[in-house]
Amino acid sequence: MTTPVDTQVLAAVKALLVGQTDALSIDTHRTEADPYTTAQLPAINLLAVEESIATPTTIGMAQGGAVHQHRLQLVVQVITQGGSAAADQARLVSAQAAKVIGLQPTLSGLCATALLPMGKQWLHDDDADTRLVRQNNLWVCGYRTHSHDPFTAI
Question: What φ, ψ does residue 6 adopt, rounded to 5°?
Fold first, then answer.
């Protein structure tokens, strides 16, 4: 089975992070319908949130299709549990993830531009039985594909 490049990017980030942070679970696109248990926290959840695509020129379309330039935004979401120490733990795991990603910012050449941090957002869920803190870390990478082949980064 062939995998689209955006899915390859998420898998590459996940592979980088496994065993390199204090996260006990690293997932892709996990939703609230599949909640984390206490034994899985702290956790990292990778989410693709937006992707823009530009086709700057039609030159070369006859030879191999137009080149699409993709700008993929993804969130490295760190989920922790507990009281006042939860935010500190989320900051620590986020910093560990940033360090690991920073060592391979193009994901071994998969991305045409370095994966760069763009911002952070905090979410607190104090109403649930399991009090959660989520730190969403927004990252952006660029990659290119031919218009006829969304499975191969060029």
Answer: -60, -35
Closest among 6, 8, 16 to 48, alpha carbons compared? 6
For the stretch 33-49, pLDDT in tens is 788 888 999 999 999 99
Q: Hey, what are 115's tokens?
A: 């994966």
Asked if residues 72 and 6 have their Cβ atoms less than 8 Å apart, the reply is yes
- 74-95: b or e for each residue (b if 16 or more CB lie within 10 Å)? bbbbbbbbbeeebeebbbebbe
Q: Are 137 and 76 in contact (CB under 8 A)?
A: yes
d(CA 77, CA 43): 8
Mean pLDDT across 15-35: 91
Question: What is the distance between the alpha carbons of residues 129 and 51, in angstroms, rounded to a whole number?
Answer: 35
